[in-house]
Amino acid sequence: MDNMFKKNREKFINQMENGVIYIAFAGKNHPRTADQPYPFTPRRNFYYLTGIKDPVIILTIFKDADGKVIETLYLERYDEKVAKWDGAVINTEKAQELSGIENFREIERFETDMGRLFFSTDALKVQMDLENRYFASGTTAEGRFAAKIKDSYPHIVIENAYPAIVRLRTTKSDEEVALIKKACGITGEAIVKMMQNSRPGMMEYELTAHFDFHLRMSGVKETSFSTIAASGRNATILHYQTNDAQTKDGDLILFDLGAQWNYYAADISRTFSENGKSTERQKELYNIVLAVQKKVIGMMKDGVEYKDLNQAVKDYYAVELKRIGLIKEDAEVSKYYYHGVSHHLGLDVHDPNRMTDGILRKGMVLTVEPGLYVAEENIGIRIEDNVLVTEDGAVVLSEGIPKTVEEIEAVMKK
Prior knowledge:
By secondary structure, this protein is an alpha+beta fold. The protein is built from 13 helices and 18 strands. Helix content is about 40%, strand content about 20%. The strands form six sheets. Strands 6-5-4-1-7-8 form a six-stranded mixed sheet, with helices on both faces.
């Protein structure tokens, strides 16, 4: 897998100008309470370029005025006491194996090294991942270091590398697609386990436990996001996460969930009846959602406009919901369908992208997730799969997970 991260860096370096140093921080553990930290997860752009999951580390890529490139990882020094209590920090051998980088420095030397470089290099530009979506979201390590540079070296030009990295992440390599497909496969197996263990009267979190157990048994340590297990009317709340209601006989339950494999995410939704037998009304609504999902997947290929996907859902619903008497006017569709049909998927479950032209391109991985939410009937339905865009069409990476009413009920009979 180290070749994948080397390739990622090569693509990033190729678009760098000469006379630029790029600096990336892995991130740090943050305290939760007492001496307990929150679980650590690396900043995704750092991981995309290194393949390293450990905290504190700093990556620098210096492309000098002549185009020569020096890649360096700044690592923590080994501490015997820390190793006894919490385990040893990553060493140079492991860091090289994961990333393919060969130059290492102790992290205590980072600011000294940067100061010397800033002083001695004419017309140097510093690039960092300066993602900060909201004023109130707090300052990142990159933001704090940028402020420090401006205070001590006001002549240095600082640029935001976030858009350039996100443009690279928007289309996936074959290796990345394989990781997402692996995550989808494990997710699908766990969904089947939930279906087979479903019984009326169970708590929503009990069914989720079957999903979590299979993931752990498959070597997955983290889900892609907090699982949604929404029964009955709860399924009409898009981001319902309480998962503590008791299911009722005959109710549909909507699951939106996913495993992640090497931080690459799956994001799958399935909806089924707790007792394994859908009513005619439930089937009617479910099959409308399933039909439009298939329609959207059939539209997806290189060159298609992204906005046309969601419009196709609205247009289809306008016809079908009038046919079954749920609405009278096209505008009423928004009462029962109030989200988009697709988003990018990758190292983040809502993967950032730079679709400046709004056009699907081969190599993009997206979700397809139409839904219908009929609160007055306590019915919420969403069907979601993950697809790869190619020149000729869409490849469903989550293929094989039971999806039709007949497939689901056959699985639940077992």
